[in-house]
Amino acid sequence: MLIRKSDDRGQSKFKGLISFHSFSFGDYIDLNHRGFGSLRVINEDEILPEIGFDTHPHWNMEIITYVYEGTLSHADSMGYKTEIRTGEVQKISAGTGIEHSEYNHSKTEAVKLLQIWIVPKSKNTSPNYEQQALDPNAKIQLIASGDSQDKTLTINQDAKIYLLRLKAGEHYRHELQHNKSWLQIIKGELNFDQLKLSQGDGLGLENQKELNFLAQKDSELLIFEL
Asked: Which fold has domain 2-225?
């Protein structure tokens, strides 16, 4: 079990971006937290109003963006120009290389999101892009996987990403199909067995067959099977 408390994460502030890093990222280097399995990056980002990031490159990485507040504008070298709104998720398989830019055009509202990087199982594939609106009423939904099941976003890795929403007092049991798993709390507060997890906390697990949760507050979290 690897516990990554919210307050122990790296933090950076740059040109209107406030970012918390669960793993080493950019100028934040933590040799004890360089990823977990194929999961390489989890950044909790807040982009302030009228702030953007100029075109920059990525390659050989699966990049998943989940926006949970606000609207993020996106443009890339594959020709996609779109907006990622609250409750939507985007995937870029960067492969041989893409360039993209991101911008918050709102004059008053910040954008809050999770940016996730997963190391691909094969390199130098053709870049591709997908975006999907999630069901706001679903308790749990598979949002990305390596096998395109249930019309999820497809990633170039043997992994699954679930979004779980629980009401205060609600129990939930999740059976695992992979050897490694990572939990990332987006909102709320819940108990995993006897461990209390709050917003921003992460937890890495190995050799678990199931996960059992009890929500103390309305909660939202990601479950990674790796």
From this structure: Jelly Rolls (2.60.120)
Q: 34, 30, 39, 40: which is closest to 8 by C-alpha?
A: 30
Torsion of CA 2, 65, 189, 223, to 10 degrees: -50
- Residues linked to residue 11 through DSSP beta bridges, in sequence order: 20
Composition of the chain by helix, strand, coil, percent to 5: 5, 60, 40
Half-sphere exposure of 60 (CA within 13 A, CB side): 4
Contact between 15 and 5 under an 8 Å Cβ cutoff? The reply is no
Instruction: Name the least confident of 47-51, 137-141, 149-153.
Output: 149-153
User: For residue range 60-87, what is the model confidence (pLDDT) as tens digits?
Assistant: 999 999 999 999 999 999 999 999 999 9
Query: Sign of torsion, CA 130 36 7 190?
Result: positive
| Contact present, 10 and 21 (Cβ < 8 Å) | yes
Residues whose CB is less than 8 angstroms from the CB of residue 180 and which lie 6 or more positions away in sequence, other chains included: 36, 37, 204, 205, 206, 225, 226
Q: Is 31 exposed, middle or buried (0-12, 13-18, 19+ CB in 10 A)?
A: exposed
Indicate the Cα dihedral angle 40, 113, 53, 12, nearest 10°: -70
The two structure tokens encoding residue 24: 């080493």
Write out pLDDT tens, residues 157-166: 999 999 999 9
Domain ranges in the chain are 2-225
